[in-house]
Amino acid sequence: MTPVGWLQIALVLGAVLVCAWQLGLYMARVFQAEKTFLTPVLLPVERAFYNAAGIRFEKEQSWLTYTLAMLAFNALGFLVLYALMRLQALLPLNPQGFAGVAPDLAFNTAMSFATNTNWQAYGGETTMSHLVQMAGLTVQNFLSAATGIALAIAVTRAFARSSAQTLGNFWVDMTCATLYVLLPLSVLVAITFALTGVPQTLAGSVEATTLEGAKQTIALGPVASQEAIKQLGTNGGGFFNANAAHPFENPNAWSNALSIWSMLLVATALTFTFGRMVGDRRQGLALLFAMYALLIAATAVVYWAEASGNPLLAKEGVDIAAGNMEGKEIRFGQALSALYVVATTGLSCGAVNTMHNSLMPLGGSVPLFLMQLGEILPGGVGSGLYGMIVVALLTVFIAGLMVGRTPEYLGKKIEAREMKLAMLAVLILPLVILGFSAASAMLPKALESLANPGPRGLTEILYAYSSATGNNGSAFAGLSANTTWYNTTLGIAMLLGRFAYIVPVMAIAGALAAKKKVPVSPGTFPTHGPLFIGLLIGVILILGGLQYFPALALGPIVEHFLMHAGKTF
């Protein structure tokens, strides 16, 4: 590790925080129906959508109606995307002449993009036509991200309101998230990506002559536009199979820094939005400090593990001064490769500029553990905020038990109903991740997909289901996932990780919104100071350790000790 490397990390994170602060305040105005600089331009467009869809924008919904509307909308998006992929051979804008996608892969991919996961068991440039990439995958990138933002805003209103029976209107929140936030940002970022060298064209491919004189076909397409919303919406699905390691998706150090900035921007900004909407900016900052303390610590571990190099190579006399560069791009370097690894898995993004299977065992365990924590550091667009709030409720409940008082969070008493629903949400992820991983580790057909035996093979399985259930979408590599078993079970894991989690969270929001706000008293446990932040971080780590440490001990941890003992699989 070098001072220059840490300076690079600090500059990128500093740029994120400065821009996220302003964006967060802007989003608070948008969702509180206050006038913004875009209102004169976009308000007529917004109202035209409501009129065309027959939506009464002034009518709010209860938590159940809000949730059902969200589920119906995403179910429709899944069906449309599935149909597009199955029928792509009959549709225009298919310059490569691709055939329809197989049923199990179409199910997996449609579920992936509808749930903001963007897990890809295929090569984008050899499987999906331009129409499917644009009208299918990119559209879902916008809508799944807008859904996450809408849900986070609904949960925020539960704390901002007192004795309320409604949480807003899903159709209005989703439309505003798309029109006022994601679309303008995506246009700006897409233009910037194009300026760094990312292609934006409807051409199918171009022929190049190699140094040996042979002809090589290089795939092209509307890459910059998909790259922008892929990162801003923490989607992560790559236009190309190599994702953000491909020179057309991520050509240089500037595009790499822009990718990290774009990934972190909206999820970070929502913490400022939360503080503004609940009327106490310190509450949002407390969540932000907890998120970034763990994010920076995770970056330090990955940076240290990779910069230290591989001791097995050192024993063979290989110079490891440059660190472990296997699976990394020289044009990005160790520092921003480490930050990218942590950002994409601390978020539910899943874009990768490094081969995670080539990370050192401890370096590879960090992104795995970040996904298993529930994608809350800072998490996916919207989903990270409401996931962090669930952990905050558990934290104040534990703190209340310690001091013998009824726990409160932002003036709302936390009672048995909220705790039962919170625990239901928290237990969904380990149940799905560990359950499907155990089944895959026992089934001979599932084991045939592994590239490595032993601890590394178990890590490949754990990573796949952690990525799918956490709606991350990044791949560890080494696992041939395009099989009926993995396409189906990973699709189910994505479904449960997204929607089985949010239903109890929305039920919590509905219960809290209906409660009257309790004024602050001398006995109120403050939820904005260092003590609460420390407790919150402790609860996050203890929950993750209790749920996943035994599995991690059999995978990357034991592999680390075997490596230092001079053994490898």
Write a short abstract of this structure:
The protein has helices spanning 3-31, 39-53, 63-86, 103-114, 124-127, 130-160, 170-196, 223-232, 253-277, 281-307, 311-315, 333-346, 361-372, 383-403, 416-442, 444-447, 454-469, 484-513, 530-564, and strands spanning 205-209, 215-219, 408-409, 412-413.
Q: For the largest beta sheet, what order do the strands appear in spatially?
A: 1-2
CA radius of gyration: 23 Å
Oligomer: single chain
Shape: globular
Could you list the spans in which at least 5 consecutive residues all have pLDDT below 50? none
Number of strands: 4
- Sheet of most strands: 2 strands, antiparallel
Helix/strand/pairing class, anyone? mainly alpha
Helix content: 55-70%
> Helical segment tally?
19
